[in-house]
Structure formats: C-alpha cells, structure tokens
Amino acid sequence: MKRYLYGLWVVSTSLLIFSCSKDTAGAETALAQQFIQDKTWYLDYSIVSSASGEKTKSYVGQSTYFINFLSNGSTKDSDGISGSYTIEKTNNQLQIHVQAKTSAANSVAFIYNLETVGAQNLVLFYQTNNQLTKLYYSAK
C-alpha cells in the first residue's frame, strides 16, 4: 500500500510540475509586435562600439531615416527597401527578421536584436566584424 501511495505521489507531482511550464516566447513576440506595428520609427542616432571599446555616435539630430513595420507583416523604409518581417525569439533574445528587396530589386535580409521597445521608443542592435551597432528610434 505504501508503494502504491508513493507511486501515486510521484506521478501526480510530476504531472503538476510539467503542466505548469509555460511557453512565454509567443506572448513576448506578440507584445513586441503590438508595440512596433503601424508606426513610423525614425532613427534618432546610432552608436557603434568597436572591440577596443571605442564608441562612435552618428545621425544625431538627423531623423531622416525611418522604417515602418505594418500589422500585416510587411515593412518599408526611407531607403526604398520593402518586404516582410517576423518577430522571433532565438536563444532567449527577441529578434526582428526582415526579408526584403531594394528599389533595384536586389534581395536583402537583416536580423535585428530587440533590446527595448515601448510605445514611443525602440532600440535595436546587431553585431558584425567585432562591432556592436545600436540603433535608437522614436515614433513621432
């Protein structure tokens, strides 16, 4: 009888533990989607950090570049690049994946890591050739 009760306790505890795990990636991507969609995001400035620690700030006060992420999954920017985007969670990091074409019909693909997103602010980053680039946007 004790063995039966112990077995029942192990099974019920296991079910309780495994049934309580949640998949939050879907909720996080949906929330990020709600924040970024259907707005015009203007690039306020970017900061490029080299491996040696040197930082360069660019585009200060020149909000001429913008990008739109629409609720239908399409995107278009001021450089004439248009296509589609998805928000995914990879290695515990939210990312915006863009598949697009330039105005000259050349295919381009980008992956931006999402650092922060709010109702009026967006910070994206990516790393290439030992340089970290952070892009600071605001919705106006």
Helix content: 10-25%
Please count the helical segments.
2
Structural class call reads: alpha+beta
Shape field: globular
Query: What's the gyration radius in Å?
Result: 21 Å
Strand residues, percent? over 45%
Arithmetic mean pLDDT: 85
Spans of at least 5 consecutive residues whose pLDDT stays below 50 are: 1-21
Largest sheet: 8 strands, antiparallel, barrel
Question: Based on the structure, what is the oligomeric state of the protein chains?
Answer: single chain
Distance N to C terminus: 70 Å
Taking strands numbered 1, 2, ... along the chain, how are they ordered across the largest sheet? 1-3-4-5-6-7-8-9
Element string (H = helix, E = strand): HHEEEEEEEEE
Any overview of this molecule?
- It is a single chain.
- The protein is α+β, with helices and mostly antiparallel strands and 140 residues long.
- The protein is built from two helices and nine strands; from the N terminus they run ααβββββββββ.
- The chain has helices at 2-19, 25-36, and strands at 40-49, 55-58, 66-69, 74-77, 82-90, 93-101, 107-117, 121-128, 131-139.
- An eight-stranded antiparallel barrel has the order 1-3-4-5-6-7-8-9.
- Strand 7 and strand 8 (121-128) form a beta hairpin.
- The protein is globular, with a radius of gyration of 21 Å.
- The termini are far apart.
- Residues 1-21 have low confidence and may be disordered.
